Amino acid sequence: MILSLSCTFFFRLLREQWIRAKYERKEFMCVERQEPYSAGYREGFLWKRGRDNGQYLSRKFILSEREGVLKYFNKHDAKEPKAIMKISSVNATFQPAKIGTAHGLQITYLKDNSTRNIFVYHEDGKEIVDWFNAIRAARFHYLQVAFPGSPNSELLPKVTRAYIKEGYMEKTGPKHTEVFKKRWFTMDERRLMYFKDPLDAYARGEVFIGCKQNNYTVLSGFPSTVQGSHWQFGITIVTPDRKFLFACETEEDQKDWIAAFEAVINRPMLPREYAVEAYFKHKP
Q1: Residue 116 in contact with residue 96, Cβ under 8 Å?
Q2: What structural domains does the chain harbor?
Q3: 18, 25 in Cβ contact below 8 A?
Q4: Could you tell me the pTM of the whole model?
Q5: What does the pLDDT look like over 23-47, one tens digit per residue?
Q6: 3-state secondary structure 242-268
Q7: CA gap 95, 101 in Å, rounded
Q8: Which of 38, 78, 110, 152 is at a distance of 20 to 30 A from 169, taking alpha carbons?
Q9: What is the pLDDT of residues 166-221, one digit of tens each?
Q10: Within 13 Å, how many C-alpha atoms sit on residue 64's CB side?
Q11: Which candidate, 212, 260, 220, 213, places its Cα nearest to that of 236?
């Protein structure tokens, strides 16, 4: 439900800013009024959610296509950034329902090969859309350099991406005797991440979902020996190393999650995804 609300808001926000750009700001008629989305550099202030206290504070952000990074600073006059995000792993998606504030944007990147979430917003819809478009432009430039000769039709879907599915499920531990705990799950490409809270900066854990050719399978229900779940609609993910057990609140949620897992498992793995799988297998 949250995913569909976010997608609806995303298209509504972009449509609104497109209409305003054309009829209100006259950007289509006057070149000098057009936003330099592909200029390769953007600097400004966004409200960022604190990792530990959840408080939103104004933070300075700089996007540099030349350096290939997006960075932010804890203090307006700080010389060194608090975090540096490589454009190669950055993703941005509108998440107003999850964040609970207008024009909310979720930015993710890989830090030590784990997903780091950053939640930001701006009061002005145009400003947050401009940041979103600037990130997309920087990502597109990176992909053109990283994959020379690839047609735009192949690169554009990789610029930014919506999550395959998000929502609550219950999970148990590797012994299948541990108490089932309610967690927020996010399916991002082949990474299934779970969080105690949807706005956590880091996942409590990540599960790699491979393909059926490599012995990954999704099953409806639990093994007969499993007990203790509060929610009754079970899902079993079979991997070459172990089984992961999840429980859904409703049968509809169960069917939706199984469909999402099947879509990923039935898709052949790309060469770069084998490297991700190898990391998960040797993860400390």
Answers
A1: no
A2: 2-158 (2.30.29.30), 165-281 (2.30.29.30)
A3: no
A4: 0.86
A5: 665 666 665 555 555 678 999 999 9
A6: CEEEEEECCHHHHHHHHHHHHHHHCCC
A7: 9
A8: 110
A9: 999 999 999 988 999 999 999 999 999 999 999 999 999 999 999 999 999 999 99
A10: 11
A11: 220
